[in-house]
Amino acid sequence: MTARGDVVGTILNARIAGAGQELLPTDGPFDVHLDGGRIADIAPAGAMRARGDTLDAEGSWLIPGLWDHHVHVVQWSLASQRQPLGQAQSAAHAARIMGGATVLADGRRVGTGFRDALWLDIPSLELLDAATGDIPTYLINADVHSVWLNSAALRREGHAIDGIGMLREAQAFEISRRLNAVDPIAGDRLVSAMAADAASRGVVGIVDLDMAWNEDAWARRLAGGFDALRVEFGIYPEFLDRAIAEGLRTGDLARGTTSELAAVGPLKVITDGSLGTRTAACSHPYPGDPRNHGLLNVPPEALVELMTRATGAGLGCAIHAIGDVANSHALDAFALTGATGTIEHAQLVAHADIPRFARLGVGASVQPEHAIDDRDLTDAIWAGQTALPYPLRALADSGAALLFGSDAPVSPLDPWAAVAAAVFRTRDGREPWRPDQRLDLVTALAASTHGGSGERAARIEPGRVADLALCESDPARATEPELRAMRVAATMLGGRLTHLA
């Protein structure tokens, strides 16, 4: 009997649902023959002798393995230990929830996922202190760009006691780094659990954008037996000098391990803020705050300098840009430097900038679930903006390559949720939001593979790496709730089973 960890020689009786299906003469079923971690042949069921260990798909649907192109691995793994705040309806409600939250082993309470932009009351230190007392308490915004701390937490972190306790952008990121600095053994155990859950959803790879020096962490995990996913890890500007000095180049395998699962990814630069924290850099001001156009965390000239150095050293670039001003500057920097890579998020894009993605060969690394999470915020806070919010269809039609992710923990690491959000633009029975920006299923599935929706999209055909997933139902016929609940029967990494239901 085939088990997790086995290397499959032949997948029997599968229906091909992913890219490559259009070249086959019938709907199947087919036998997919694997050799050396790659697809060797595809033949009608029973037409060729099976080789090696077999996996009977029993008529289920075979797709290329899925990727999440934007994950903060440790922070997402730790979310399981933190108090969820997504249902908090007000600052007072969030404070009450945290007053009853579990105190972690390090003596802190940590909550995550609040969205204060539509709260009617205003967060204050007095309110949070009254509910949480002397136990250091941290509330992390869903977008991770702000953190609300009580007085005990501010003292512990060395911050002055002010009247609010809300830290934003760089100060918030530093708090997250400190909260993420857990014991490596315990942290790696949580990362392994995260990876197993991802594999159960058909995920074969992720781009890890933790705000740390990630090579050592992945070498340690791989040495400890981690084998569930492929990983490309990002490098932040504070580590760029070290990366260049040590000769790291995008695509190189992680040093200190014999595994081929972890590789150097891109330079990650956070150029502006976020919608929820009202710091995304926009051309029009935020409602009720005429001087607030958001923040540019990295000035344009500094961004060009960073990307020039990274490009010269062989590193790709992943540039966080949410507001339309930030997206324009990021595209300008790609044009000036000749850098390769992606813009991360691209949530609000000027009409004139839409075609520039394809012209410059810049991938749009987007998170479709954010559009559904933020639909009410967008309609309220960006109502006066003239740029396009969450322009998935417009980007795809212009020829841009889309690459889907979750930005976990901002939204859960679940590619089926991303695909459903992109195709149906809704959740929980609500009317579709901006349905003109829907994608077709073929494009959405391609965007969830390693190469994205462009010419580099993963395909099921001879010669391709056997990173594959078997779906229990046909994605092409699934409704929005059915896509979100898609059951994956098996996931293979180079033909090796990482998940078997």
Keywords:
single chain; 501 residues; alpha/beta; eight-stranded mixed β-sheet; 30% helix; globular
Structure in words:
The mean pLDDT is 96. Helices cover 30% and strands 23% of the residues. The protein has helices at 73-78, 91-99, 125-132, 151-157, 170-180, 184-199, 214-223, 240-245, 300-312, 324-337, 354-360, 368-373, 375-381, 392-397, 415-424, 441-447, 480-484; strands spanning 8-16, 30-35, 38-44, 53-56, 61-64, 66-71, 83-84, 109-114, 137-141, 146-149, 166-168, 203-208, 230-235, 262-270, 317-321, 341-345, 348-349, 363-366, 388-389, 402-404, 468-471, 488-493, 496-500. Helix 2 packs parallel to helix 3 (125-132) and helix 9 crosses helix 10. Strands 1, 2, 3, 4, 5, 21, 22 and 23 form an eight-stranded mixed β-sheet that branches. An eight-stranded parallel β-sheet has the order 6-12-13-14-15-16-18-20. By secondary structure, the chain is α/β, with parallel strands linked by helices.
